[in-house]
């Protein structure tokens, strides 16, 4: 029997979800997705094709179908209009989607863009203005991060924090929460990985405070924690050469000084060498700590109540460049309830993730066994060929 507390929680959750607004959801669960999404034609022959598939490994093939980038070294552009334009002026906006880099991605985007409702879908390109860009970007070993970019007064601003992204071949869920109070959260696989304020974590407006340009560190400020002990002195026998002649070395009998030059024994490390002498360190009695540059109010700062507020989030799209194709995008959600977004991800992603992993491991095991069998066959054939060659040589004898 459920406890009273558990029942109360379920009731509260039900009420919360019933009050939630979902502006857009897409599971790509039926062939009708092609009627809901519009392909960009802006790049012509360089525009990559999309494939409707669950990929090479999955838990439930029909449930886990998404749209996959299908051609290497191509631009990808596809978008869909929201059922109702979203706004975070009074309620949060949650942007969530799932991506699986099945191709062991080496360089390519995996993010979603959110546009205004006036988006010209067939003309969508990288330079098309957008409100929000969110999701993973991978290129080599140096770039493996989650982009969170907001457009403010016509300029795109990247988050100052570094948020590592997932770079394996499994499906992962990325969630962005944008609140009316100019705060945000980023979740990966339903776990919060970053949060804060737009004012602090983006350079969209001047900072509240700046370093006082008139302040200078006092000339007598001593910030050395340790100093040399003046009573310490170098021992008389300290200085020894780092290398010495090898006492066991002998001049070769065939050494000719006129031809080979004057012979000298090889140098070997000196076991008595002690390195550079340094005085013993002691606490500095004059240490004042690290000097902190005082700050003052920034005269250029003024709070902008419109920062990060979007009243016309009308379309979502994947606008990407991929060197190596194979990323599968799925389960897109735009709404005003984090609880509903999590429930959507629980239903579409979490229930399948363990089975997906097992399917991947099964494929890898089969491929490994096939490689081992092929290698064993190759070695057996080589051994048989060697044996036949030996037999031929014996016959000739």
Automatic annotation (TrEMBL):
InterPro entries xref list: Calret/calnex (IPR001580), Calret/calnex_CS (IPR018124), Calreticulin (IPR009169), Calreticulin/calnexin_P_dom_sf (IPR009033), ConA-like_dom_sf (IPR013320)
Organism this protein belongs to: Capsaspora owczarzaki (strain ATCC 30864)
Subcellular location(s) of the protein: Endoplasmic reticulum lumen
Main location (coarse class): endoplasmic reticulum
A UniProt-annotated Pfam family: Calreticulin
Similarity remark: Belongs to the calreticulin family.
Gene Ontology biological process terms, A to Z: ERAD pathway; protein folding
Disulphide-bonded residues: 107-139
Protein's recorded name: Calreticulin
Keywords, comma-separated and alphabetical: Calcium, Chaperone, Disulfide bond, Endoplasmic reticulum, Lectin, Metal-binding, Repeat, Signal, Zinc
PANTHER family per UniProt: CALRETICULIN, CALRETICULIN AND CALNEXIN
Gene Ontology terms for molecular function: calcium ion binding; carbohydrate binding; unfolded protein binding
Region (Disordered): 205-270, 355-397
Residue positions binding an alpha-D-glucoside: 111, 113, 130, 137, 319
Signal peptide: 1-20
Positions with biased composition (Basic and acidic residues): 211-253, 355-382
Record PROSITE patterns: CALRETICULIN_1, CALRETICULIN_2, CALRETICULIN_REPEAT
Comp. bias (Acidic residues): 254-263, 383-397
SUPFAM superfamilies, sorted: Concanavalin A-like lectins/glucanases (SSF49899), P-domain of calnexin/calreticulin (SSF63887)
Gene Ontology terms: cellular component: endoplasmic reticulum lumen; endoplasmic reticulum membrane
């Amino acid at each position: 029997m459920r406890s009273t507390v558990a029942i109360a929680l379920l009731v509260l959750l039900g009420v919360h979800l019933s009050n939630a607004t979902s502006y857009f959801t897409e599971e790509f669960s039926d062939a009708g997705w092609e009627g809901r999404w519009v392909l960009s034609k802006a790049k012509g022959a360089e525009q990559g094709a999309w494939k409707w598939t669950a990929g090479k490994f999955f838990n439930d093939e029909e449930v886990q179908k998404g749209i996959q980038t299908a051609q290497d070294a191509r631009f990808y552009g596809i978008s869909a209009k929201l059922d109702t334009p979203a706004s975070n002026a009074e309620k949060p906006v949650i942007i969530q989607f799932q991506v699986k880099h099945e191709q062991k991605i080496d360089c390519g985007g995996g993010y979603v863009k959110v546009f205004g409702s006036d988006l010209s879908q067939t003309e969508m390109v990288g330079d098309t203005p957008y409100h929000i860009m969110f999701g993973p970007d991978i290129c080599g070993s140096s770039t493996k991060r989650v982009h969170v970019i907001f457009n403010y007064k016509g300029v795109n601003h990247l988050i100052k924090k570094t948020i590592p992204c997932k770079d394996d071949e499994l499906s992962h869920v990325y969630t962005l929460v944008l609140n009316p109070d100019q705060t945000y959260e980023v979740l990966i696989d339903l776990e919060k990985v970053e949060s804060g304020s737009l004012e602090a974590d983006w350079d969209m407006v001047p900072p509240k405070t700046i370093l006082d340009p008139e302040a200078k560190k006092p000339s007598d400020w001593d910030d050395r924690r340790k100093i040399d002990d003046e009573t310490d002195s170098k021992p008389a026998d300290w200085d020894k050469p780092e290398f010495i002649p090898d006492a066991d070395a002998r001049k070769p009998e065939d050494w000719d000084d006129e031809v080979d030059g004057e012979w000298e024994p090889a140098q070997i490390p000196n076991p008595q060498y002690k390195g550079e002498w340094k005085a013993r360190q002691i606490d500095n009695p004059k240490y004042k700590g690290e000097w902190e540059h005082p700050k003052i109010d920034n005269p250029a700062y003024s709070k902008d109540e419109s920062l990060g507020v979007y009243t016309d989030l009308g379309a979502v799209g994947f606008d990407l460049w991929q060197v190596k194709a194979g990323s599968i995008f799925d389960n897109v959600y735009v709404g005003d309830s984090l609880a509903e977004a999590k429930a959507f991800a629980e239903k579409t992603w979490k229930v399948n993730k363990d089975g997906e992993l097992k399917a991947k491991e099964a494929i890898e095991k089969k491929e490994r066994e096939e490689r081992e069998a092929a290698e064993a066959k190759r070695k057996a054939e080589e051994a048989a060929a060697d044996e036949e060659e030996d037999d031929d040589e014996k016959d000739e004898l």
